[in-house]
């Protein structure tokens, strides 16, 4: 037996592969595929030699494509709204939003989905969207941050953490109570925002299109049906289908109730402008912001710190999801947290340099359905990247992605409800409840960034939450890093006027 195991360990994937007809069930075949794979790290992985394409790979590819197109659209819409409100000379409309989304879906899909996670490192999960940061985009813009400055800081911090293997350390610094409170706040605020947006959209249809009757009931009908559908999917263990299923249902209901007058197809086939200078070189083209200056970096700093700090729990959560769904002896195909952080950092800078504005993280709307479907990363990553590029070139599907019923429902069931659920699940006892409550209160009074820093410092020193937590941490983890985060966040926010009642220092 031991001799056989040793021989199998020396054989390649192609030598160990057996056709599905030799297995009693499809599940057994998929389990066997996961157990025999031996992905090469930062080397060329080839189809049939190192992995195969299976019908199940279409599930995460389609779910991920729908999820990311909607989330990118929400991010760019938030940037457009915040920057237009912040700066008098900036005017960013729907056409600009779609064009920036196409940039984000095209170049990163090729470089980091197809080439990166597909062929070069199948243990690095795809770099997607940072869902918990979506509710903060408006605040980031109003604080005077610059998307390119934010991307540079995120890339630098992420690469440093990856190099020094700092992911697990940040997980230890942010307790379950603090993280749970942060997720509950972001989930609630985001859900409330999308509910308000959809009702406002439905209320405004009559005046916008000169209709003789109100369509305000459309939003209510969409929410009622989607809540029931989401609950049903959760009950049968198919919640990973929530984004495509609820998006399709939202479109069907809106069209059936007469709201289709607001859906137009104006994005023609073609390619977006991929000249970085067009996007960042002038205050008259692209983002209309020009290149970032020192104040932009100062304003972006606290949000970059928070985003990178929240990467590690996000990454580990996706890896744990794999572990829960994969069979035993599949350690070689589990996502590597530090490699994923490296790819996210490089993707953050590259996507924004070419004109994007996404805040990236591990791609949950891909990984969760992939794990449930018992598929490894590479084949689905190649399919997903190809689908994203096709949608960009075709153009018309982008108009559906930014339509309010699709955007609101996909964000609600794909980001904000899961955030609420995850946050509530993390608050398990009185210690966690205490830390979470303080975090939520501080976030309401100031903002989530400073709330995270302050409550992390208090929690790590036993002043709130688990009183014994301080005894398990060394001086650096208890005082230096949390204290430094509080000082940096406070100074940065004071500089840009984000502290209530205190005028901007810059």
TrEMBL record:
Pfam families xrefs: DUF3360 (PF11840)
Membrane spanning residue stretches: 58-79, 100-121, 133-161, 173-195, 215-233, 240-261, 294-312, 377-396, 402-424, 436-458, 478-499
InterPro entries assigned to the protein according to its UniProt record, in alphabetical order: DUF3360
UniProt keywords, alphabetically: Membrane, Transmembrane, Transmembrane helix
This protein's name: DUF3360 family protein
Source organism phylogeny: Bacteria, Pseudomonadati, Pseudomonadota, Alphaproteobacteria, Hyphomicrobiales
């Amino acid at each position: 037996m031991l001799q056989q195991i040793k021989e199998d360990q020396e054989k390649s994937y192609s030598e160990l592969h057996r056709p599905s007809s030799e297995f009693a069930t499809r599940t057994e075949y998929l389990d066997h595929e996961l157990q025999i794979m031996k992905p090469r790290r930062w080397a060329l992985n080839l189809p049939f030699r190192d992995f195969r394409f299976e019908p199940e790979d279409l599930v995460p590819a389609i779910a991920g494509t729908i999820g990311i197109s909607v989330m990118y659209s929400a991010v760019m819409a938030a940037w457009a709204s915040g920057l237009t409100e912040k700066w008098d000379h900036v005017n960013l409309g729907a056409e600009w939003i779609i064009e920036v989304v196409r940039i984000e879906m095209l170049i990163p899909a090729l470089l980091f989905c197809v080439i990166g996670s597909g062929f070069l490192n199948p243990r690095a999960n795809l770099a997607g969207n940072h869902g918990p940061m979506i509710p903060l985009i408006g605040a980031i813009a109003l604080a005077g941050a610059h998307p390119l400055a934010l991307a540079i800081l995120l890339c630098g911090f992420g690469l440093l953490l990856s190099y020094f293997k700092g992911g697990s350390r940040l997980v230890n610094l942010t307790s379950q109570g603090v993280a749970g409170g942060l997720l509950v706040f972001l989930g609630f605020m985001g859900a409330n925002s999308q509910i308000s947006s959809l009702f406002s959209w439905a209320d405004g249809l009559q005046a916008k299109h000169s209709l003789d009757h109100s369509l305000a009931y459309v939003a209510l009908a969409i929410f009622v049906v989607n809540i029931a559908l989401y609950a049903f999917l959760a009950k049968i263990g198919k919640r990973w289908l929530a984004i495509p299923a609820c998006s399709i249902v939202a479109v069907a209901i809106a069209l059936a109730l007469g709201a289709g007058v607001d859906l137009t197809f104006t994005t023609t086939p073609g390619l977006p402008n991929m000249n970085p200078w067009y996007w960042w070189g002038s205050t008259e083209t692209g983002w209309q912001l020009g290149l970032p200056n020192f104040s932009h970096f100062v304003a972006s700093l606290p949000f970059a710190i928070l985003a990178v700090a929240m990467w590690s729990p996000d990454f580990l959560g996706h890896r744990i999801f794999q572990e829960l769904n994969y069979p035993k002896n599949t350690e070689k195909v589990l996502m590597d947290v530090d490699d994923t952080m490296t790819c996210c950092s490089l993707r953050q800078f590259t996507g924004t340099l070419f004109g994007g504005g996404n805040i990236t993280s591990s791609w949950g709307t891909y990984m969760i359905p992939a794990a449930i479907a018992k598929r490894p990363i590479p084949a689905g990553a190649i399919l997903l990247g190809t689908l994203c590029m096709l949608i960009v070139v075709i153009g018309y599907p982008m108009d559906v992605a930014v339509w309010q019923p699709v955007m609101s429902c996909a964000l609600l069931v794909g980001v904000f409800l899961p955030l609420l659920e995850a946050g509530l699940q993390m608050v398990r006892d009185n210690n966690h409840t205490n830390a979470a409550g303080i975090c939520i209160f501080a976030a309401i009074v100031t903002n989530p960034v400073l709330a995270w820093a302050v409550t992390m410092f208090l929690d790590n020193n036993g002043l709130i939450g688990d009183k014994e937590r301080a005894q398990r941490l060394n001086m650096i983890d208890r005082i230096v890093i949390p204290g430094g985060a509080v000082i940096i966040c406070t100074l940065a926010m004071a500089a840009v006027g984000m502290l209530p009642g205190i005028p901007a220092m810059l």
